[in-house]
Design brief:
The structure is a single chain. The protein has 123 residues and is mostly beta strands. Helices cover 0% and strands 50% of the residues. The chain contains no helices and eleven strands. Strand 5 and strand 6 form a beta hairpin. The chain is globular.
Length: 123
C-alpha cells in the first residue's frame, strides 16, 4: 500500500496550492483520510481530515477558512486546497489513511502514511 502526495511547491504569501494524494495497492474509499504537516524543528501536526464519504470534515484552527479537504473515491485520491497561504504554513505535508471511516484527526487513528510534499511560502 502506497500513498503519494504531490503538488507542493514555492509560493508567495497569499497564494494558493492544491495538494493531491493518490493511493495505490488498495482502495481507501471506506477510510477517513487526513493531511498532516511538519515544519522544520517542530512536531508533526494535524491539518485536516475527511470522512470516508467526504461528508464530515475537520480542520486545525490555524487553517480553518483557508484550506479545504476533499476526496474523489472513484480516483482513490484526496485533495487539500490551500488558499491564503502564510509563511507559517511552510512545512512538509503528509497524507494518511485512517483505520476507520471517521477520525477526529488524532495521529493514532492513521495507519498508512505517504512520503510528503514540501510547501514553502515566502513573505
Amino acid at each position: 500500500v502506497q500513498l503519494q502526495a504531490f503538488g507542493g511547491g514555492s509560493v508567495q504569501a497569499g497564494g494558493s496550492l492544491r495538494l493531491s494524494c493518490a493511493a495505490s495497492g488498495r482502495r481507501f474509499s471506506n477510510n477517513a483520510m487526513g493531511w498532516f504537516r511538519r515544519a522544520s524543528g517542530k512536531e508533526r501536526e494535524f491539518v485536516a481530515v475527511t470522512s470516508w464519504r467526504g461528508d464530515v470534515t475537520k480542520y486545525a484552527d490555524s487553517v480553518m477558512g483557508r484550506f479545504t479537504i476533499s476526496r474523489d473515491n472513484a480516483k482513490n485520491t484526496v485533495y487539500l486546497q490551500m488558499n491564503g497561504l502564510k509563511p507559517e504554513d511552510t512545512a512538509i505535508y503528509y497524507c494518511a489513511a485512517a483505520r476507520k471511516s471517521y477520525s477526529g484527526g488524532s495521529e493514532s487513528d492513521f495507519a498508512s502514511w505517504g512520503q510528503g510534499t514540501l510547501v514553502t511560502v515566502s513573505s
